[in-house]
Amino acid sequence: MRGAVQIFDARMRTLREILQAMQEGRVPWNHAFVRGARGLVQRLPLLSETMQRELVAEYEDALARARHKAQTTSSQCF
Questions:
Q1: CA atoms within 13 A on the CB side of 6
Q2: Sign, CA torsion 46/56/26/37
Q3: Distance between CA atoms of 71 and 66, rounded to whole angstroms?
């Protein structure tokens, strides 16, 4: 059981690192990956409603930043 938990922990850390890199612009934004990550997080049991609201708020914030970046980048092209 300990090995499975360690593997899960490592994969979740990797997922978080990729999402942070996208949010910071270090890697290209991949909407399909973000949607998949959200689906995965929603399937995980959470300790509280507060944690779930915080995760959804973070997700929505990241989407808003991505939209803003896409809009400012596309407006610079003209």
A1: 3
A2: positive
A3: 9
pLDDT digits (tens, 9 = 90+) for 44-61: 776 677 777 887 788 788
Q: Could you report how far apart the first and last alpha carbons of the chain are, in Å?
A: 56
Q: How confident is the model at residue 26 (pLDDT cuts 50, 70, 90)?
A: very high
pTM over cut 0.90: no
Contacts of 26 (CB under 8 A, 6+ apart): none
Q: Are 31 and 69 in contact, with CB atoms under 8 Å apart?
A: no
Taking the C-alpha atoms of residue 1 and residue 10, their distance in angstroms, rounded to an integer, is 14
Stated length of the chain: 78
